[in-house]
Fold this protein.
Amino acid sequence: MTDVIVLIGAGSLGQAIARRVGVGKKVVIADLRPENAETAGKILSDAGFDVTVARVNVSERASVEALVDVAVGLGNVTGMIQAAGVSPSQAPIETILNVDLYGTALLLDQFGAVIAPGGSGVVISSQSGHRLGALPEDQTRALAVTPVEELLALPFLRPEAVKDTLHAYQLSKRANVLRVAAEAVRWGRRGARINSISPGIIITPLANDELSGPRGDGYRQMIASSVAKRAGTPDEVANAAALLMGTDGTFITGSDLLIDGGTTATFWFGDTI
């Protein structure tokens, strides 16, 4: 039976990963906007990949379930790439929590139920989750293990309890990492692995929106003060994703890989060394 890789989020970062792990497999590209999925699908099809496109709204259970049905109908689901999301400058608090936090938890839950033995997945989180201070132990555990449909009812995730869109984003990305760690246990029972990647500033259309938006000066300062003194590229993240999803990474699961050119190291320790 054909191996199937599912890419959720048709942007340049997800496409770069799909190119690295989708050779010889059927690639499903799903996005909220059908035109984005079609455009990415044509790019990969023209490069020799076997592509099926679909629409998905990760914040709607029925839509995610329909995507799972499409993938299962094509073969053995051996890979999932969750690269969908919105940034603090693109959406209000409620949308960020619904897409970046709830949507990722829902995808992990649904694809974790069908992932094939030997399969693997990667969730694109963010360095931003590493810039959030330590949470109380009860909140940390709640983000990791609360049933999906109860997540957004947690008191500290109610929109009125979240300070601003950046806080919503940081909470969501911290939740992604914690959720992956917990889900790795369940995926492991199926003989599969799941990890997350927390990129720093990677030059994509989303990053360019941030650089030209109200937080642009802050982003440029992060780049200038980082160890690497530059932004990253989608291919650099894809290299790491290929390791995590491939045969060289079979001892890695439930982990988060921070790829940010030392930006987080500077944030926490730059003034002390």
